[in-house]
Design a protein that fits this description.
This protein is mostly beta strands. About 0% of the residues lie in helices and about 50% in strands. The chain contains no helices and eleven strands. Strands 2, 4, 5, 6, 9, 10 and 11 form a seven-stranded mixed beta sheet that branches. The chain has a four-stranded antiparallel beta sheet with strand order 1-3-8-7, with no helix packed on it. A hairpin with a 6-residue loop joins β5 and β6. The radius of gyration is 13 Å and the shape is globular.
Length: about 120
């Protein structure tokens, strides 16, 4: 079955960095568009970034542009999110998601918590 397992979250000071990873299994990872989304306390889901089948096709939300970088390692079935210059407003539960055939998020990981605070 499809599994997405995030890791790498934690507590970091403003201006710091974290690298999130998502280990994927149960599907052909190299053929799937993948996304990172987040949910801040008391708020809805916010799309953060996506990456296409080719690692050259990436998109990021304006709120994280220039600070976050998405990447994938299809040999290791791993999705990554490098987060630099973190701000308190980046505090959220971060989810790795798989894009389905109807462009929906058809599978989600359990999430990894990122807290940016001094």
């Amino acid at each position: 079955q499809v599994q997405l397992v995030e890791s790498g979250g934690g507590l970091v000071q403003p201006g710091g960095s974290l690298r999130l990873s998502c280990a994927a299994s149960g599907f052909t990872f190299s053929s799937a568009w993948m996304h990172w989304v987040r949910q801040a306390p008391g708020k809805g889901i916010e799309w953060v970034s996506r990456i296409g089948i080719s690692s050259g096709t990436t998109y990021v939300a304006d709120s994280v542009k220039g600070r976050f970088t998405i990447s994938r390692d299809s040999a290791k079935n791993t999705l990554n999110l490098q987060m630099n210059s973190l701000k308190p407003e980046d505090t959220a539960l971060y989810y790795c998601t798989k894009q389905g055939s109807n462009n929906e998020y058809d599978y989600w990981g359990q999430g990894t918590q990122v807290t940016v605070s001094s």
